[in-house]
Design a protein that fits this description.
This protein is α/β, with parallel strands linked by helices. It has 12 helices and 7 strands.
């Protein structure tokens, strides 16, 4: 069982705070019309899931993300400057400005893509895991998906195949209680999605997705199990999406009282309190991490701002069609 040493806790804290700081900046810039498109999905409030799960992974392990994927990629080690450039549609972005928020990825850190198709990753991750087995490596593939996605056919296909072939996959359900505006109680008859694991004879675990240490412990167990060849796990992390479904969503389907509750469960503040109470760190050390991260995000914004727009002559559509449209 992994130990919670100070280095690990500070790393988890820094990752969560980087995701928060990055996305708050994205929200601000989207509001100013600086980010092309309106389909920008933020994960503010859900940072502990990405941070806790990815801390249990190696650089060469895979993650398959969702439409709400900035946090997953940051937690897996992507650089915030190239991410910010991608969101701004610049040539220096991870996908040379062609992917944007919903299709961003970095293969170098094991990212197999964000995806606009809800539930698509549930069949991509078993494929990545199968490739690892066929190549004789011990890589693991993590699939992030939402509560809404757990009703897609791909959920059942992906879990069934992964369990039957004992593939090294960890299925991580970020249960934020909503599929867009539909509350979980209106889109499925069960409360705990992890119970569905029973149907595929794999372990199903539900954790408090606001508690990064709990997420990390459960993910470490599932990743180790997958790596040793014991097969997949369904890990459900119960969490909260603080903001609208996407940046322009008015979010009028949730009451003011419900929204006010969210911040009481802030995963970053919870870890801060725990660290101070247990004497693991000092307030000034945490402040130092936050100001370093804020500076990093400012540099990322400047990098994106100064980067070139993609050139029309270099349009991949033109290249693939030999210059003809
Ligand atoms: C196959 C498919 N169906 C519907 C949509 C429209 N859509 C986009 S996000 C979303 C809700 C997804 O909910 P969930 O899986 O819980 O993820 P969350 O947004 O809560 O992170 C829907 C229905 C889509 N993009 N793809
Ligand atoms: Mg959801």
């Amino acid at each position: 069982m992994p130990e919670f040493d100070e280095e690990l806790i500070m790393r988890l804290y820094k990752t969560m705070y980087t995701i928060r700081s990055f996305e708050e900046k994205v929200s601000e810039q989207a509001g100013m019309g600086m980010i092309p498109g309106f389909m920008i999905h933020l994960s503010v409030g859900q940072e502990a899931v990405a941070a806790g799960v990815c801390a249990a992974l190696r650089q060469d392990d895979y993650i398959v993300s969702t439409h709400r994927g900035h946090g997953h990629l940051i937690a897996k080690g992507a650089s915030t400057d190239r991410m910010m450039a991608e969101l701004r549609g610049k040539e220096t972005g991870y996908c040379r400005g062609r992917g944007g928020s919903m299709h961003i990825t970095s293969v170098e850190v094991g990212g197999l893509g964000a995806n606009g198709i809800v539930g698509a990753g549930l069949v991509i991750a078993p494929g990545a895991a199968l490739s690892a087995r066929l190549r004789g490596t011990d890589q693991v593939a993590v699939c992030f998906f939402g509560d809404g996605a757990s009703n897609q056919g791909t959920f059942h296909e992906g879990l069934n195949l992964a369990a039957t072939w004992k593939l090294p996959v960890v299925f991580v359900c970020e249960n934020n209680g909503y599929g867009f505006s539909t509350p979980q109680s209106s889109h499925q008859s069960i409360g705990r999605i992890s119970r569905r694991a029973e149907a595929y004879d794999m372990p199903g675990i539900t954790v408090n997705g606001d508690d990064v240490l709990e997420v990390y412990l459960a993910a470490s167990w599932a990743v180790e199990r997958a790596r040793e060849g014991a097969g997949p796990t369904l890990l459900e992390a119960v969490t909260r999406r603080w903001l609208g479904h996407y940046v322009d969503d008015e979010d009028d389907y949730r009451s003011a009282e419900e929204k006010a509750e969210f911040t009481l469960h802030d995963p970053i503040e919870q870890l801060e309190r725990r660290c101070i109470e247990q004497g693991l760190t000092s307030t000034s050390q945490l402040e130092r991490i936050r100001s370093e991260v804020d500076e990093e995000i400012e540099r990322a914004c400047a990098f994106a701002e100064e980067s070139e727009e993609p050139s029309p002559e270099d349009d991949p559509g033109l290249i693939f069609s030999g210059g003809e449209r």
